[in-house]
Design brief:
Elements lengths: L2 H4 L21 H4 L6 H6 L3 E6 L8 E5 L2 E7 L5 E5 L13 E2 L4 E2 L6 E2 L5 E3 L5 H10 L4 E2 L1 E4 L2 E5 L20 E10 L3 H5 L7 H8 L14 E6 L3 E10 L2 E10 L3 E4 L11 E5 L2 E9 L2 E11 L12 H7 L7 H6 L3 H6 L17 H18 L21 E6 L7 H19 L4 H17 L12
Antiparallel strand pairs: 1-11, 2-3, 3-4, 4-9, 5-6, 6-7, 7-8, 10-11, 12-19, 13-14, 14-15, 15-16, 15-20, 16-18, 17-20, 18-19
Amino acid sequence: MNRSTETRSKESLPYSGYHQSWTGQGDDELTRVGPNTPCGEYLRRFWHPVAMTSDLGERPKLIRILGEDLVLFRDKGERVGLVHRRCPHRRASLEFGVTEERGIRCCYHGWLFDVDGTTLEAPGQPAQVEKQICENVTLGAYPVKEFKGLIFAYMGPPGLKPVFPVYDTFDLPGQTLVPYTAPFHCNWLQVLDAIVDPIHTAFLHSRISREQFSEGFGEIGKMKFYKRRTTFLGTAARRVGDNVWVRTNELVLPNFTQAGAAFSADGTRQLYYSRTSFVRWVVPIDDEETLCFAWAVFGERADPDEYNTPEGPELIEQGEVFDRSYEEKQRCPADAEATEGMGPITEHNKEHLVASDQGIVMYRRRLRSLIRDLQDGKEPAHATDDWQDGPIPTFGGDTVVQKPKNGGDDAVTLRNIGRAVMEVQFEAEGLPETDRVAKVVACLKQIETDEMLYGETTRSD
């Protein structure tokens, strides 16, 4: 045994299974989402999608969000309610309730509740007793908002309800939003991690099994991460022939994510300031189940209309359809297999985070800080704090500029161009959409002719 081997721990030696611990531990502070947990309290300060409009029919729907069993319903007055599952009288489940012109009636003893939880009727009681019940007994309920085929809820303290966030990609000209859901049988954090992990697309979605999107995804490129007040961005600048493809993934805390197109961008043709292919929230069902609610985006600045099919959103989400055999999943794993394979809650203390995980480290650190601030009485910031008079500007998308190699250090060229592409977007973020597009596109065309971006003129990162 040589000297270097002698200094290594038993856990790092070959065939060290015996010496390595069998199990690790999840990061409870970031993964536990139920009522009265630190992360659960933080998440309850935000609006979250909880169902698709198309899933809500004549009968109440039992759902589970943030570890709570709830009942969603639409009364005959076309109002949507989200209430605690158990009736406050004798704890019967309101999933078996009956909707009325105003509210939902319990199947067991006929108590009627409004969408805000107010008791409207308590039949079979003396008039004075019923009056006291209606004044003093309330069914737990949460505010909801129906928007473009998704139903959102706010589950935090009523007096702290934030403004509903409207992002610019909700209503871009010439685009169609198609709602969908994507289930993951694991903790929400390991699903969310992938959005600020640009390197995984080169392997999981290209090199490991097949090209699930395009050949260009297989290029690792040069990555850079950006931290803003509520937003984290991860860019990958890839070389594809004479072009440089800059792809931007985006996370707005706590769980709003966007990324570039799945099929309209492959790096082979110039593309100036294309936008996201999905507008997506990673919503914890409980500690070990997650459901992504999203809109797949189709149009000239997103993915092609030909993918607006029943299976199209699934392919955009992870490169494969969801319902596949185990053998197919082994042959061509996608995001669900990668994240669920970590276990219901990954063992965070056994991870070995490296340089390419910088985005994950940055956002987890910020998330932890915000959770602890809330425990100390400081309410979290919202994206709407800085953008109250218009849609919130976002950055997920693709740009492909023509920039042939010039014989210099192409790695430096990629880093310089990736940085320049993001800088022009930051400079234009406060402009109206039409002006923003015009400014960004003009600057991107200048990047194509700027000789200072080549490798000979290295600038510090």
